[in-house]
Amino acid sequence: MKNILIRLLPLFFLSFAFAQAEDFIINNDEQFVLKESKNDLKQTLQKAKDFIASKGLKLFYIVDHAAAAKEAKKNLEPTQVLIFGNPAAGADKMTATPNLAVQLPLKLLIYERKGKTFVGFVRPTSFAIPFKLSANDAFLNNTEKLLQDLSDAIRN
Asked: 131 lies in a domain?
């Protein structure tokens, strides 16, 4: 039995290494959520803009990292970050917790790799510890639910 385990161990680590090469994409941990979209980047981006507008949120800016990379004579597959939020709710929270302004407005990542589109965001509840907020903070939990709902709605 021991010999069998010793022989299988390298295969286990090799298969783990290959799995990790693909797993760099999908990651749902305590701080970051990444989901695959069933749509292409253009459709996913439009769905995100429509969702944001339907919730009465303000779309502040879309960062086009691929366009910036092209200006720097570098290649980058389509990668965009939507910056959006509710200025009234954000202002109230930043009044109480000024340092939280570094994480607001909210950000949603949409990118394409190898013909697949992905949607990702940093979990707002992960801001609780660094900003000395309660894990049950209503603002953080509500914004996380919004990001979960948004990412689910636009990827289908």
From this structure: yes
Q: Look at residue 30 in the predicted model and tell me its pLDDT.
A: 74
Mean pLDDT by 10 residues, the chain (156 residues): 42 36 50 94 97 98 97 97 97 96 97 95 93 94 96 93
Pick from 105, 104, 108, 110: nearest CA to 66:
110
Strands (E), 17-131: 32-37, 58-64, 79-85, 106-113, 116-122
Asked if residue 13 is part of any domain, the answer here is no
Inside any domain, residue 17: no
> What pLDDT score does 75 carry?
96
Name the residue type at position 41: L
For residue 37, list its beta bridge partners: 117
CA distance 48 to 130: 28
User: From the centroid of its chain, how far is CA 149?
Assistant: 12
List the strands of the sheet with 106-113, edge to edge.
32-37, 116-122, 106-113, 79-85, 58-64
Print the domain residue range for 41. Answer: 25-155
What is the rounded CA–CA span in Å between residue 74 and residue 87?
Answer: 35
